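Handout, section 4.2: multi-component inputs.
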Amino acid sequence: MAGSTIDHLIAMTIFLGAILIFVSLFNQIIQTAILYQRNRYLATKCSDLLDNILLNPGIPENWGRSNREPLSFGLQDPSPAFQQYRLSPFSLMRLQSAIGEPVYYPGTGEWYSNITMGFGNFLLVSSAKALNYSTVAKLLGINNTYGFQLTITPIVNVIITENRAGNPLILTVTATGKGFPLANALISYCFISVVEKGSGSYPDYVMISNISYTDQTGRAVLSFNVNTQSSYAFIAYVRVSGLVGVGFHQRVTGDKRYVIPLVENFEERKVILAHSYDVHKFGPPESAVFYNATFVQLSEDFTIRQVKDYQGILGKINYGQGSQFYYDTVTLPFDTGVLIITYQSNNEYGVILMPWGVSAMAFPVVFGEDPLNKTWVVTDIRQVTVDKVVYQAKLALWSLEGSQVIGG
Amino acid sequence: MVMAHITIEYVIMLPILIMQILLFPLTANWLMNIWVDSRRTLALQEVASHLGSIIQQVYFTLNRENITTGGITQKPDVPPLIENLPYIGNATLKTILDSAMNSSKVLTITLRLKGTGTTATTRVLLGPNVVWRESTFISNSPNACITAQKFQNKTILLAFGG
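Output:
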């Protein structure tokens, strides 16, 4: 009889164990299924959010051209006729960059959001007037519930390489799409060569605008007559079948003292031209910088033109001391384009380019938090145009409500 | 001694085993209920979020300055049934008190799955010129839609239709 009781006890223990194993396995399967559904929901949310951002201009419609915070966030270009997936180059410019190190300028006592693309290609906008991540999350109604990163990158890559530095200067323009060359593409280019006038005087420049075509491999070789080692800048817009891309290249003889353009006021289109010493402080005090600036635009007939009244803007800027800072201010035109600043300091020359509207030089925009190490990130993409330039908009979205991923 | 063993086996052990037989399906049922509730809640939440997004897009379409007056009726691409059950939706509009948001309005949409206690809520941010008309969204109605009307004074009236 004692043996029978032991049998019962063992049977009951095994039965209880079986129930526990069943509960835990069943629970795990259910959790995985719920997670799958939650992730699908996140994907729908990502797609909806991306469309809401790209298909509405925000409130007010022209917030990208003002200094005010919008009431509602959207990036659609309100002009000329609310085309679908056409984004405003100015609204994009008002987003605080997530990748560039912010720059402090003591002349205004302000920080500037940095989308600089290497030496001489600056886009620094006032952080106080640019929209930050938490504000946009609040305007989108996703603060504390979702994290996101919005990336706008150009689809057409235009690479300019200097094949021959001497006279004639030979440049190669290579245009590629996503893994394929842009054959027989129209190139509209602008070549600015700095004319050296000697120390203590304003530099001069010669500007050549012309068109050319790429070959079957997406390349075009262009030659220019310039003095060996003189400074120049080259901007090329490439177009094929409605796809437009931008490339640029500079050569400078002096990179210690130069002009740094800082976008100070979006509404009044005011840009501060500051001495580089005030921003970077390269050791001992440096000499003044003389500049000669101009503004170019890509016109409707796909040619690059200098804007009337924006030719030969001359000035001299010095570094600041104590509370005394010296800078110049230029007011840019209403439409997008490129501010070209040729400079001279101690008989060293160079050219600085600044896009007015991110698309003018196909600058990428990265806005929001870094999705690295975030749990279950959903992404969605759309093909968009910014002004005439083609971009890819990608939204990465993740939940902040702590859903876990089973099985990695 | 023999009687004591019989008592242990048949009076204590047997009811426990019988209880375990009942416990197994009860546990399975309990787990299934959790699964079904979660599934329905998530599905309803997805629909609510999508509906909110559509309302926002309809509003922004009419809010453009080049549109002076006019109306839109949008049939949302949401499922009429969730697990064979229809759902109904209501919404309330409130002005945000946060001064930084400058009198923007938030529309709170609540969906309820009929015959269950499952509900889902989503909030969408709209401009100060929006007005909400009290209405109900019935998912399985053939005329279920979102209507929007813009007036001369730039006010946009939103409502569920059908």
